[in-house]
Specification:
- The chain is of the alpha+beta class.
- The chain has one domain (2-296).
- The protein contains five helices and 22 strands.
- Strands 2, 3, 4, 9, 10, 13, 15, 16, 18, 21 and 22 form an eleven-stranded mixed sheet that branches. The chain has a four-stranded antiparallel sheet with strand order 12-11-14-17, with no helix packed on it.
- Helix 1 (2-21) packs across helix 3 (109-126).
- The longest helix is centred in the N-terminal third of the chain and has 20 residues, at 2-21.
Length: 297
């Protein structure tokens, strides 16, 4: 019996190791951006949930519990099935405007089961942060804008107000971010949140913006003036994929980029991280952020 247990434990351990070092990406070379000084604009960050399901769509789910979970998880607002604005925090879901929407329904049941077995259970057991299953997915081409959905449903609400699964689980460690030049009044939240949204997994510190002699520009915006494009992150092992339209301009394993662009097109980045690398092999790639483009007309 003990021999069988050791065999099962060995298989499980190897399964865990293999799962943690996947996916693997081969990058023949990475680019280098000289360390240039750049102005640091005042940027306000708003975290929002998208496509939240509640009792308004004939399912369970307490609004009070959702608001409490949003406060704990540092979400400013949520878009969902609400018929109207509620408490200046909850708003009806606007149209997605052709964005790439990442959903749990895009993931197979087998992938979810493997993730539960080799990521969720072992990391919860030792108190480590669990990586979102969607962060394992590598987007191979950029989109006009991005959203990550929080559309898992509450199965039931007990008579004493307890939701299952709780909204903390549904909000998870995924979030949509909108960057703004100014503080916004609650009742002025609009579709701009969708157009310039940035998908992030976890709560990484990063900035993406562009600037010229005339102004600076945020994801989802456009300008006619050539600009310098800035990416800044606090990741230990960053891997920034830079795109112009649908073409990869370069891979950068740097925490800060400051690049000059004067040809028209849409410039965007995918911010990744990795466990370790051996020569040109990057192991344990995870998506950290998907940034809507800044367009040079």
């Amino acid at each position: 019996m003990s021999k069988n247990l050791r065999r099962i434990a060995s298989i499980y351990l190897w399964g865990f190791v293999i799962y943690q070092i996947l996916p693997i990406k081969v990058i023949p070379y990475t680019n280098y951006a000289p360390k240039e000084l750049y102005p640091v604009p005042v940027i306000y960050r708003y975290n929002f949930a998208y496509d939240v399901k509640t009792s308004f769509s004939n399912h369970a789910g307490s609004i009070k519990n959702l608001l409490s979970a949003m406060k704990r998880k540092d979400f400013d607002i949520a878009f969902g099935d609400f018929p109207e604005g509620i408490k200046e925090k909850l708003f009806p879901t606007p149209e997605e405007k052709g964005c790439r929407v990442m959903r749990n329904t895009d993931i197979s049941l087998l992938s979810s089961a493997v993730h539960l077995l080799f990521e969720v259970i072992p990391k919860l057991a030792v108190g480590k942060e669990v990586s979102d299953l969607l962060s394992f997915k590598q987007i191979k081409s950029p989109s006009k804008c991005y959203l990550v959905a929080h559309d898992d449903r509450i199965l039931f609400t007990a008579f004493f107000g307890l939701d299952f699964p709780p909204y903390d689980y549904i909000l998870g460690n995924r979030r949509n971010i909108y960057f703004s030049r100014e503080l916004l009044i609650r009742d002025l939240y609009s579709e701009d949140f969708i157009k310039g949204s940035v998908v992030a997994f976890g709560n990484p510190k990063f900035k993406v913006f562009a600037y010229s002699e005339r102004s600076f520009y945020l994801p989802g915006e456009e300008t006619r003036y050539p600009f310098r494009y800035v990416v800044e992150t606090n990741l230990k092992n960053p891997l920034v994929v830079l795109y112009k339209d649908k073409t990869v301009l370069g891979y950068y394993n740097q925490r800060r980029l400051n690049l000059s662009f004067n040809r028209r097109g849409s410039y965007s980045v995918h911010i990744l991280t990795y466990k370790f690398k051996i020569y040109i092999f990057y192991f344990g790639i995870r998506t950290v952020a998907l940034v809507s483009p800044i367009k040079l007309l």
